[in-house]
Amino acid sequence: MQTRTIDGNAIARELRAGILTRAATLTAGGVQPGLAVIRVGSHPASSVYVRNKIAACGEAGIHSRDIHLSETADEAALLDQIRALNDDASIHGILVQLPLPRGFSPERVLEAVSPLKDVDGFHPMNAGLLAVGHPRFVPCTPLGIMKLLEHEGVNPEGRHAVVVGRSNIVGKPIALLLLQKGATVTICNSRTPDLRSITRQAEILVVAAGKPKLITGAMLSPGAIVIDVGINRLADGKLAGDVDFSSVLGTAARVTPVPGGVGPMTIAMLLENTVASAERALASGRTRT
Ligand code: NDP
Predict the structure, then answer these.
(1) pTM here?
(2) Which residues are catalytic?
(3) What CATH number is associated with residue 89?
(4) Does 171 contact ligand 1 (Cβ within 6 A)?
(5) Residues 50, 89 share a domain
(6) Nearest CA to ligand 1 atom 12
């Protein structure tokens, strides 16, 4: 079987062009979408992620605020900052870059973000809305995966989808989204015995385990659509997904590469959620003009 590589960069570029148009329409109407990104301390990977997000906002016509609290800031200072942004009508999305330094409660911090500006979709209220089938903000990576599948013309209805990983940011929400589309969903975790017996049943396989090359071609059924979420830095400095890319060629029908698959979609969906938030704010009069 010829395996086709899904080009996440190209699909994200296409989606970003549409987002730029929507942002321009909002701006012309007096409401430029705005995103605030808050980070605390100096986690090296976080600075790169934040820089990329800020640059992506600029290209999409979204104004951004990069708020950097020092290593010595405490949780109260962070919560004050979040509250000020919750009340700031020019900001439609608030993102707190994780991980937070030791001593901070991520749960308390994420719950402080207004659920109406929670563009990461991590607030329990937004997680609950997704679980009951009325999503408002959906976490960016799972939302990006659904857009990839849609773009590829893959309809999950009636298919067996297997998700490897049960995190709140990827595994659980992607399982819920696939379920809502009518897939039969199996969710695996680190305690799942005989993973291969389950992944071999997958027509759609989403892998978000953070374990390099966990999935090989021998663990697939022929024709599977494989979405690799993993981003792992190997000892030689190279990036690898959770799927052994070369070994699935010839067995999978389609596969996302790492890098260049799910990653670019995640950033595009952050922009999507910010613009959608500004559109909702405008429609409900929750914004300055
Ligand atoms: P977590 O560490 O929070 O979750 C990993 C999940 O995988 C856990 O549920 C764990 O099970 C499960 N798991 C680990 N090993 C196995 C195994 N051998 N068999 C079955 N399940 C296993 O990670 P995240 O969900 O946050 O991220 C997953 C990966 O995706 C990471 O590599 C991360 O860097 C990447 N990522 C990529 C993004 C992108 O934009 N492309 C965005 C977000 C994440 P258990 O719960 O039992 O421990």
Answers:
(1) 0.97
(2) 53, 97, 120
(3) 3.40.50.10860
(4) yes
(5) yes
(6) 165
pLDDT tens digits for range 204-224: 999 999 999 999 999 999 999
Query: Residue whose CA is closest, atom 4 of ligand 1?
Result: 167
DSSP string over the chain: -PPEEP-HHHHHHHHHHHHHHHHHHHHHTT---EEEEEEES--HHHHHHHHHHHHHHHHHT-EEEEEEE-TT--HHHHHHHHHHHHT-TT--EEEEPSPPPTT--HHHHHHHS-TTS-TT--SHHHHHHHHTT--SSPPHHHHHHHHHHHHTT---TT-EEEEE---TTTHHHHHHHHHHTT-EEEEE-TT-SSHHHHHTT-SEEEE-S--TT-B-GGGS-TT-EEEE---EE-TTS-EE-SB-HHHHTTT-SEE--SSSSHHHHHHHHHHHHHHHHHHHHHHTT-S--
User: Which residue, 115, 132, 165, sits at the end of a domain?
Assistant: 115
pLDDT at res. 289: 41
